Queue: 4 jobs
Job 1
Amino acid sequence: MSDWIDIAALSDIPLRGARVVKTRAGCVAVFRTASDQVFALDNTCPHKAGPLAEGIVHGSAVTCPLHNWVISLETGLVQGADEGEVATYPARVEAGRILLDATRLRGERAA
């Protein structure tokens, strides 16, 4: 059974934007796509630890602001010729509020 935490209103994150949620394990980036989908990933790029929440959101991916690595918001996998992976966390929108799965945040190390 999951334990969901209400972190913000969907409108608190701009379209194609992100916000950082600080957890006991570290920082998680919460992204909002142009189609109002919400994704949560570690806030650290696997390449040189770039802050993903400061990256460019396009489609269902984010481009790291430091070295342009592209990471899937859906899977956390690095796209293209580069290799790596970022941890993902279940997120959903309910009644206009963004919820994160607290069980997963407690059970795995975030960035």
Job 2
Amino acid sequence: MYDHIGLKVKDLAASKRFYEAALAPLGHVLGSHDDTYAGLGPAGAPALWLYATPGAQGPGTHVAFCAANHEAVDAFYKAGLKAGAKDNGGPGPRPDYSPSYYAAFLIDPDGNNVEAVCP
């Protein structure tokens, strides 16, 4: 549905570590990057862009990534926690969203709510 998303981040290295770890189970990899930005997404098609913005403090954004199955959602959550994210809702069904909705939520290093979902 979207072409790409850009997030301003205070610490590019920390954010890159988090997103590389948490998104690997979803099939995403680090693509184009330098000291000021990093692009992640499917190989050859980065769609999440991180932009180094020292002192950035936004209201927090919600980004949800599609997962192939429940195991990928679980792996996203575990890898994200290991990479320094904060829990914002462990893996499990969310019947209040829809009968088959299965998701996990993490808070990234910049306070964004990051979700992996297998609808």
Job 3
Amino acid sequence: MAPDFFDRPAAEVARALLGCLVRSDCSGERTAGRIVETEAYTGPEDEACHAAERIGRTKRNAPLFGPPGTAYIHRNYGIHWLLNVVTGPKGFPAGVLLRAAEPIEGLTVMRRRRGRDELTNGPARLAQALGVGPDLQAHRLDRPPLSLHRGDPVPDEETEVTTRIGISRAADRPLRFYDRRSRWISRR
């Protein structure tokens, strides 16, 4: 998917990513999934965003200010890597967290990386199953080894919009999107 797909508000991109494919050729092994859950982080006015106004630009969140369609990888609780897609114009820190995907390719590789059958139903599990780590920081997501591709869009009547989960600030904003038909979402 070309960078211009991502050059719009994070909430629009979060909704549009449902049904798209995320493909990884990390470590020379192909894995892929159909995106079924996302969360938008809309910029400095969003208290849950890593570049909220109270935080500003730091070394840690600098990739979030990058061009649209690039990866922002961050460590959650000092343990797990999470994959985000930078959205909006360059210099405006907004993005979409990929929360869950339906595994469609490379399930054996995903199981080996995860060490269990819960493969991609959560942002940390998804990143681990795809082999995503800090080496992909600021990577353009229109090329290998990690790329996003158009898929079959999720119809509006099958899309659920809820408040974000797993955060303490601005948790009441309806910026979580998921395919209600999927058994792979992180949590209902």
Job 4
Amino acid sequence: MDEIDRLVRRLTPEDRRVIAFLDLQRLQVENARRKFQATKPTYGVLDRLRFWSILAGHMEDDWQGLDHYMVYEYLNDLTVRDGIEEVLDAMPPGLRAKVRVCLDELDRRYQAVTHDDGGAELAQYWRPLAEGEETRWWWTRRPDVLPPGW
């Protein structure tokens, strides 16, 4: 059982209602940018955690099975991590604590396969980092093994 499965098993009916509400808010934002109307957000609460977990898994496996993973895909995953922080702020304390336990484990996995280079690698591709405006720790870390196609 992975971190997200453990989280889902611990959710109360009220937690699930809060997540559904946050997902509905996200769906409205996403649909406002689309020509079609989706019924489920791409970046719902649990989906964001899954994206972060998938990234850590790819890095743990040294990107095996992927013939390319462009730096801009990686940057997107980092913005997904930004979104997790934003949604945490909107949660009531009890749910936030449960999600934080899951996120802390995912972050440990990410940290184990990256190293802090002060953002030097990503600053080539991400202007806020190059200009010193981006300081969140996950942005200043470089994968130990760069993926194919980077």
